[in-house]
Design a protein that fits this description.
Elements: H1 5-30, H2 32-37, H3 41-48, H4 53-76, H5 86-109, H6 119-141, H7 143-147
Helix pairs in contact: 1-4, 1-6, 3-4, 4-5, 5-6
């Protein structure tokens, strides 16, 4: 079987979502320093005060979202069984990633003092933009297949 380009793009997009999910699990293992690094200082503060339930629960919820997004991408690629509302879900996921990535424009304009955005914020935005682009390319290439039976 020769997979379509769209399936390859969606396979890569799904893998990226799963790597992002693993990074969030790593944040739980590392603790407050990781939450600060990942732009969640309020979760780091709560964990440092000994209130671990909310930071862990929220991080697990975000992790579950990224796992679901990975599953939807792989379903769109034909690597998992067809999930409900596949095409609209993939369009929404592509939009969220792409819009999150578009923050790079604002962040780049405010990289230096007085705003002083850390460079890692730009890296996070570029990653989101790249994953969004993978989703967009995959959805566009598989558009017709996503409307009907699971793509091959």
């Amino acid at each position: 079987m020769n997979p379509s380009a769209g399936s390859l793009w969606l396979t890569a997009a799904g893998a990226c979502s799963l790597v992002i999910a693993l990074a969030h699990l790593g944040a739980i293992a590392i603790g407050p320093a990781a939450w600060r690094f990942m732009q969640a200082p309020e979760l780091a503060e709560q964990a440092q005060r000994g209130a671990w339930l909310r930071p862990v629960a929220l991080t697990l919820a975000v992790t579950a979202v990224f796992v679901a997004w990975g599953a939807y991408a792989w379903s769109g690629a034909g690597r998992l069984p067809r999930l409900p509302l596949l095409r609209p879900a993939l369009v929404a996921i592509a939009a969220v990633y792409t819009l999150r990535g578009a923050l790079v424009v604002y962040q780049a304009r405010h990289l230096f003092p007085p705003d002083g955005y850390p460079a890692r914020f730009i890296v996070f935005s570029l990653v989101a933009l790249a994953v969004g682009a993978l989703h967009v390319a995959g959805v566009f290439a598989n558009w017709n297949a996503l409307a009907g039976a699971a793509p091959r």
